[in-house]
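Why should sequence recovery work at all? Because a backbone constrains its sequence more than one might expect. Tight turns favour small or flexible residues, buried strands favour hydrophobic ones, and helices have their own preferences. The token representation captures these environments compactly. In the example below, the structure is given first.
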């Protein structure tokens, strides 16, 4: 398509919060609105004034806010059947929000008009036109959302057009076609949008799609290709049922693939950070598989892929990850070759020779460890330790002599108590260090005992804390005799890292992961390795 301006309308703060598990406080909404404005979003839909106290509080806060670019929109419905727009309390509440834009939705599908609203087709058209005109006369820019437009068009095209004509007569600035049920197919939608654009040439058309058929992004892009000039969606695809059309996927497709002119185009390198910020406010784990912005979006696991990507990046990457604020990642597994290992080592700040006898023996070791259950794909720190030991002869400054754990459950008091005894030898000291510690579980007790045993020898380990602990059974059919894989996430307050361990004994698997965490911290302190963001 030739370069044409497309407006981006973000409804994360309203439609996005209808998604399961998604909630923002009024203050969260204000902070997110600032992020959206800074990113270059054109319209920000803040909520439905009067529908709940949280949205009312947000619009009160927003009255004192001045956005550099974005227009804030309040959302609501047309007036009620049998009530003039000027007498409708809900429309009055929309005006009280004092936003420059008001978005209202009306019914397109006669099924909803007669069976849900329980009114006539003619009265519905009156409600649409009267409501839009009332808001326009009050000095508001009005975006009209034609709810269930494509279902309504399939049922009665003439009436669907009539509802848009009513909004046009009222003075709507945009006619937004909503695939509310998310069931329309791409070719059908594209043809319908083209008809609407041809018929309503004076009023720009918008798209509002849901992802129920997994086509929310494709439908939005198809609508733009057919002539639509506004796209509504949510960051990270939040929304009711399976979600709305995902703006983090739509935006780079519009900008980089279709050549659309976007106000946020100059900010596209901040897209991943923007996406992660929204997830943080929602307290939702980021989707690692998300196109463009996901952690795995530019990750290469197969050795052939990694080798080709190193030589010619676009051989296995559809674009440069830096353009959306992402980065290339090399994943390690039993499928890895020397190129994958060398690229990953470079990412970690460790020098290795790709074509060397050491590399051949390292690959053999890696494949063996992976077959035993160690998973370095998600444990960069353990992999860094392995690299340093094999290629640079790095040796531990401590050695485990033995450990023992005992767990006791007091049923009457509903108490769990575990004790660990650890014996280690530190550097060249002749005496064995013995430490005893307790915790609510054996892994915690083992960790505490290790710290006590290290004592004054490694004060830098005092700030290391475990922040996540994952256990996975690797074999099926063996029951409690299965090999257990443990992943541990540790932090020193500034950085975090993952380590892994695997063994039929869950305590031993945990010890292996713990040991790599301590090793990694010590190597960080002596400069042997660096975290990826420091390279």
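From this structural description, the recovered sequence reads:
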């Amino acid at each position: 398509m030739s370069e044409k301006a497309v407006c981006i309308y973000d409804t994360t703060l309203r439609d996005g919060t209808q998604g399961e598990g998604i909630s923002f406080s009024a203050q969260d909404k204000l902070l997110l609105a600032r992020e959206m404005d800074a990113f270059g979003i054109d319209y920000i839909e803040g909520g439905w004034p009067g529908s709940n106290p949280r949205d009312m509080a947000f619009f009160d806060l927003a009255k004192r806010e001045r956005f550099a670019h974005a227009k804030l929109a309040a959302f609501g419905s047309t007036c009620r059947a049998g009530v003039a727009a000027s007498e409708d309390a809900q429309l009055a509440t929309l005006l009280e929000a004092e936003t420059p834009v008001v978005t209202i939705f009306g019914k397109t599908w006669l099924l909803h008009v007669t069976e849900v609203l329980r009114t006539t087709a003619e009265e519905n058209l009156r409600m649409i036109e009267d409501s839009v005109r009332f808001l326009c006369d009050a000095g508001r820019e009005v975006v009209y959302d034609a709810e269930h437009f494509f279902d309504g068009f399939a049922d009665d095209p003439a009436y669907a057009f009539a509802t848009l004509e009513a909004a046009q007569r009222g003075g709507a600035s945009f006619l937004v076609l909503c695939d509310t049920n998310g069931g329309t197919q791409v070719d059908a939608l594209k043809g319908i949008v083209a008809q609407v654009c041809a018929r309503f040439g004076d009023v720009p058309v918008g798209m509002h799609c849901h992802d129920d058929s997994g086509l929310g992004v494709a439908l939005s892009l198809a609508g733009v290709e057919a002539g639509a000039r506004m796209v509504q969606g949510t960051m990270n695809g939040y929304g009711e049922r399976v979600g709305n059309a995902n703006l983090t996927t739509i935006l780079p497709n519009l900008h980089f693939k279709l050549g659309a002119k976007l106000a946020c185009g100059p900010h596209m390198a901040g897209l991943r950070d923007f996406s992660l910020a929204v997830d943080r406010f929602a307290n939702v784990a980021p989707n690692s598989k998300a196109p463009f912005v996901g952690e795995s979006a530019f990750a290469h696991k197969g050795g052939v892929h990694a080798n080709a990507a190193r030589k010619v990046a676009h051989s296995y990457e559809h674009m440069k990850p830096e353009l959306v604020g992402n980065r290339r990642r090399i994943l390690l597994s039993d499928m890895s070759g020397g190129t994958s290992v060398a690229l990953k080592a470079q990412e970690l700040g460790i020098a290795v020779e790709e074509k060397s006898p050491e590399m051949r023996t390292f690959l053999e070791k890696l494949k063996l460890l992976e077959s035993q259950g160690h998973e370095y794909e998600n444990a960069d720190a353990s992999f860094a330790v392995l690299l340093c030991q094999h290629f640079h002869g790095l040796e531990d400054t401590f050695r485990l002599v033995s450990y023992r754990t005992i767990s006791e459950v007091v049923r009457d008091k509903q108490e769990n108590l575990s004790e660990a005894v650890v014996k280690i030898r530190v550097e060249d000291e002749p005496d064995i260090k013995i430490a005893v510690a307790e915790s609510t579980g054996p892994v915690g007790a083992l960790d505490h005992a290790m710290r006590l045993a290290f004592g004054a020898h490694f004060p830098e380990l005092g700030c290391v804390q475990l922040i996540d602990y994952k256990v996975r059974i690797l074999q099926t059919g063996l029951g409690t005799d299965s090999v257990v894989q443990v992943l541990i996430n540790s932090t020193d307050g500034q950085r975090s890292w993952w380590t892994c361990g695997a063994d039929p004994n869950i305590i031993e698997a945990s010890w292996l992961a713990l040991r790599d965490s301590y090793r990694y911290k010590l190597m960080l302190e002596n400069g042997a390795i660096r975290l990826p963001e420091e390279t």
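A few observations help interpret the result. The longest strand covers residues 398-410.
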